[in-house]
Structure to design on (175 residues):
């Protein structure tokens, strides 16, 4: 009976794992996958632009379709005007890990942060208890798994349906 229950749990976990893996693998959005899913867009490009798009590169004068094939969907779109013309800017985000200049448990005042670790006694409604460790420990700031922070890494601006400007930005300093 117990062996059969374990088998059912293992089978359900395996099914879930395979399903999740399939979902992740099929949702990959690469230049090659966009080209293979939309060959009609790729065939409309000039040979020069086809070569650039295949390498994930863009140039001034390209169409939004060519940029979409090369760089994928943007994370944000901004509209505005430049020199009296309507423009649209696509913003692509990238991610960096936020690093602490003082990895835990080494705070700016040495091992254990501000209080040096140890035991802190506290009373609450007549009951006394101890806090073991640093009372100022912040798991967000001192995490072993630092948070990912989004930053704009690329922008491309269109006017009259063509690229007029593109920028590749450097990652920000994270502390």
């Amino acid at each position: 009976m117990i062996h059969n229950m374990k088998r059912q749990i293992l089978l359900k976990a395996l099914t879930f794992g395979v399903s999740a893996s399939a979902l992740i693998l099929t949702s990959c959005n690469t230049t090659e996958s966009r080209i293979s899913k939309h060959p009609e867009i790729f065939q409309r490009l000039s040979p020069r632009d086809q070569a650039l798009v295949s390498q994930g590169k863009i140039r001034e004068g390209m169409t939004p379709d060519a940029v979409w094939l090369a760089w994928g969907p943007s994370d944000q779109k901004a509209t505005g005007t430049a020199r009296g013309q309507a423009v649209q800017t696509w913003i692509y985000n990238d991610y960096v890990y936020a690093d602490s200049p003082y990895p835990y448990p080494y705070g700016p005042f040495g091992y254990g942060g501000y209080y040096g670790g140890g035991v802190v006694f506290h009373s609450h409604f007549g009951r006394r208890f101890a806090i073991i460790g640093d009372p100022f420990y912040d798991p967000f700031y001192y995490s072993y798994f630092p948070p990912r922070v989004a930053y704009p890494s690329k922008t491309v601006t269109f006017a009259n349906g063509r690229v007029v400007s593109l920028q590749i930005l450097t990652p920000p300093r994270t502390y």
